User: What shape does this take?
Amino acid sequence: MSSRDTVLGRVRRALADVPREERPDDVPVVRDYLQVHGERTPARTADLLAENLADYRALVHRCSPGDVPGLIARLLADRGARTVVVPEGLPAEWLAEATGVELVPDTPESTPAELDAKDSVVTGCAVAIAETGTIVLDGGSAQGRRRITLVPDHHICVVRVPEQVVDSVPQGLERLNPARPLTWISGPSATSDIELDRVEGVHGPRTLEVILVEG
Assistant: This one.
């Protein structure tokens, strides 16, 4: 007997008492699991997000709205960035102080090779999940196409606190449309081989910087 036969046999036995005409939607599924693990104030939720982002080796910065342009300009200068991909809808003031940098709009014509030649990308996000240290993009305003956050080696992501931050994955899912192109990011791109040697920048940016804009 093959492994396939074994698996299918177990499935048939598990479904033996299910009427043939029954459809999955005919039986309600109890979803009484915890939405959030513990109770937190918005400030504590933001602290947990920052902690878990850093644990995933993202670089976390916290500032007020008025400090965003100067901080982004400094991060780009520290990186030596000369070209920055800018998605549609990104607030113009965020890059107002980034002098000496070419702003490259996100367009459908941009090829992976062209994006690979760009130094950085600056985006917003759809939602950030504190318990998992995850940033979710859905291709909406200020986020652009998925590839602009996967090809350039340096991604700066701006998160508005507290309105874009939730405690848990279930809360995050409530805010997202599954029909949109969702990209879930937990730290910079990384993988490990069988010896557990960590390699970063394999299938996404090598450096992820998250700016938590509070207030």
